[in-house]
Design goal:
This protein is of the alpha+beta class and 375 residues long. It has 3 domains: 98 residues, Immunoglobulin-like; 111 residues, no CATH class; 144 residues, Glutaredoxin. 43% of the residues lie in helices and 22% in strands. It contains 13 helices and 15 strands. The longest helix has 28 residues.
Length: 375
């Protein structure tokens, strides 16, 4: 079944590359909506705003052409909302029912060979891994001690099996747009050598997709970061910072660069929508603080260098910027006992961390806290 689907997908890709393909996308929601517009864009595109459609009586329609099948996404607010419904844009008619509670995994897509291929993979994944994973997670909430440790061990094993299942599919179907979409969910966890080998194996058509180009950009950055840590101070101009971090002393190195000054540290990623939502509040906060007395520092994790540099200047993020390698990113988040971003940290004049979960810029408490640190 899998080989047959992959073969059909390959034929579809070849025909798609030869000329513009026409599509019609109709959609609805599994509940009432108040929004007037919905946006269509390429998945993993930073802007993700290529076309828009008006929502009328809970329904919408997109029509147009595209060059080759790849993953697109639907969203109410592409720049600020994490809710995105991904699907494969293909020739012909496609219908989607958006699950308002779970856009990404609950939405139902009908039509298109790649969409069918992806649904078949998800069915196998659920049978082999996901259903059991849900049961174990539920059990773990009602156990403790040795029994809880055993369940956690089984959960870790299932995650590993899921990675193996996904990688096996990707390696077996390098010509399929489904494979590059699956890679988008696991590439952060792969080492540079393995990720490089997988990226090299994809067909020319897949290498044209936005998802491939974004992952390739990330990979190229990680290879470069093994040799250096890009860092600069951004004020009126960009001034490079010469600094070397090691995984054991990341915070201490930042403190050494800014001896005697308190630091408000933001840990973020170029791909992180909640991180970007705080940028306007951060600029407003800086306008109320004497930045000569307080350092605004930014550790960007697991992000392509080009996206990192562009966002800093587009958002006018004044302060010290550091692009962390995968190794440094993981060590930093482990040190702070929280692997989620955005994350904010307060460091006092003596170089001590006084809050590993500081208020974000939009929080009314942060201005008073920073002023107190400056005194």
């Amino acid at each position: 079944m899998r080989n047959r689907i992959a073969f059909l997908t390959l034929l579809l890709l070849f025909s798609a590359c030869s000329q513009k393909q026409h599509y019609q996308l109709t959609g609805s929601f599994n509940g009432p909506v108040e929004e007037e517009w919905i946006y269509l864009g390429k998945f993993m595109d930073n802007e993700m705003k290529l076309d828009s459609a008006r929502i009328e009586n809970g329904q919408f329609v997109f029509k147009g052409t595209f060059d080759f099948p790849e993953v697109y996404g639907l969203s109410f607010h592409p720049s600020t909302s994490p809710q995105i419904a991904p699907f494969f844009l293909e020739p012909g008619k496609i219908n989607i029912t958006i699950d308002l509670q779970d856009w990404e995994f609950g939405s139902v897509i009908r039509g298109g060979q790649a969409n069918l291929e992806y649904q078949e993979f998800k069915r196998i994944q659920e049978e082999k891994i996901i259903n059991e994973l849900h049961l174990l997670r539920s059990e773990s909430q009602h156990t403790d001690g040795a029994e809880r440790q055993m369940i956690d061990f089984k959960i870790a094993e299932l995650y590993e099996q899921n990675n193996e299942l996904t990688l096996d599919y990707i390696r077996s179907n390098p010509e399929s747009p489904v494979s590059i979409f699956l890679l988008a969910y696991i590439f952060f966890g792969l080492d540079s050598q393995e990720l490089g080998e997988i990226l090299t194996s994809f067909s020319p058509s897949v290498k044209q997709t936005t998802v491939y180009l974004e992952i390739r950009n990330f990979y190229d950055t990680q290879v470069a970061l093994e040799q250096r840590t890009p860092a600069f101070n951004y004020s009126e101009e960009i001034e490079d910072i010469n600094i070397e971090f090691d995984a054991e002393n990341i915070i201490q190195t930042l403190v050494g660069l800014n001896q005697g000054k308190p630091i408000y540290l933001k840990i973020w990623g170029s791909w992180c929508v909640p991180c970007k939502k705080e940028f306007p509040y951060l600029r407003e906060l800086q306008s109320k603080i004497n930045t000569a007395d307080l350092i605004f520092a930014y550790f960007c994790v697991l992000s392509p260098e080009n996206d990192w540099r562009i966002l800093i200047q587009e958002e006018d993020l004044k302060g010290q910027h550091f692009l962390m390698s995968k190794e440094l990113s993981e060590a930093l988040l482990a040190k702070l006992q929280d692997r989620t971003v955005p994350k904010y940290v307060l460091i006092d004049k003596n170089g001590s961390i006084i809050d590993m979960n500081a208020p974000k810029p939009s929080d009314d408490r942060i201005l008073a806290l920073l002023n107190e640190m400056i005194k």
